[in-house]
Design a protein that fits this description.
Blueprint: H1 3-12, E1 13-14, E2 19-21, E3 27-29, H2 32-39, H3 58-67, H4 77-84, H5 89-104, H6 118-121, H7 132-147, H8 159-169, E4 170-171, H9 191-203, E5 211-212, E6 222-227, E7 233-239, E8 242-244
Antiparallel strand pairs: 1-2, 2-3, 4-5, 6-7, 7-8
Helix pairs in contact: 1-8, 2-7, 2-8
Length: about 250
């Protein structure tokens, strides 16, 4: 993804309004529901609690024993997971940590792992019960506020979500786009399509020159949260007969 679009969107994002402004003055509102629609993440009842910077305990010590310094350990996680081969609880914890660090936060430059979430995800049975949408949404607001205090630094935040939200909610008829969206919106795009859309915008006057089309309805969308007999958390979405469950 081009660095230009990330910087553009963060500069245009007003964290006090939770919206970014297009070139025509329209404000594109972002809400927690958009995270769910775009990324398809669970939206449970538990909040994700992170370690404070100086805080430590046995769970964090165990992680450091496996991976070393969490500041530069994120790039090694997939290789080590393959080498270990065991599909145990450590595998689940490491997988979630890697996805949060590299997919949700996209902090490729500094390669810092989001190890502070170990305070919550070390209990693997609770991973599906957390409100991951709230985690990403609040992370977007807080990271944009922090970045605007020092714009010379690279942006550390949920870039993937922000860019997908932009291409989903902002339409420019001259550039074409996706007409048949499905849930989650992430599944409608691939690298080639996204690069074409953004490169075309860049070559035709720059970003932010479309209009806000809001949250495009897919079809009647139901979000049900139930607790099964064994205590498993289920989050079901029905979209054109499709059902997604987080079990």
């Amino acid at each position: 993804m081009p660095r230009e679009i990330s910087h553009y969107l963060v500069r245009q994002f007003d964290y006090s309004k939770c919206a970014f402004t297009l070139e025509n003055g329209e404000e594109v509102k972002i809400e927690e529901e958009d995270v769910q629609m775009i990324l398809g993440l669970p939206r449970g009842e538990l909040d994700i609690i992170e370690y404070e910077n100086i805080e430590t305990d046995d769970k964090l010590k165990a992680f450091r024993t496996r991976w070393g310094n969490p500041v530069n350990g994120a790039p090694l996680v997939p290789m080590k997971m393959i080498e270990n081969k065991a599909a145990d609880n450590n595998f689940k914890i490491d997988f979630v940590l890697f996805m949060v660090s590299y997919f949700l936060w996209c902090d490729h430059l500094s390669q810092v792992s989001r190890h502070r979430i170990l305070k919550s995800i070390s209990d693997v049975d609770n991973i599906k019960k957390f409100n991951w949408c709230k985690f990403v949404f609040e992370g977007l607001v807080n990271s944009c506020e922090k970045w605007k205090g020092n714009e010379k630094r690279h942006y550390q935040g949920p870039q993937t979500f922000l860019i997908l939200c932009y291409v989903y909610k902002v339409s420019n008829p001259e550039l074409g786009g996706i007409n048949d969206y499905r849930f989650p919106i992430l599944s409608c795009w691939n690298d080639t399509m996204l690069k074409f859309r953004l490169d075309t915008e860049w070559a035709n006057g720059g970003f932010g020159r479309g209009s806000d089309v809001g949250r495009i309805p897919l079809s009647p969308l139901q979000n049900e949260k139930t607790t099964k007999d064994e205590g498993e958390y289920e989050e079901t979405y029905q979209d054109r007969g499709q059902t997604r469950r987080w079990i």
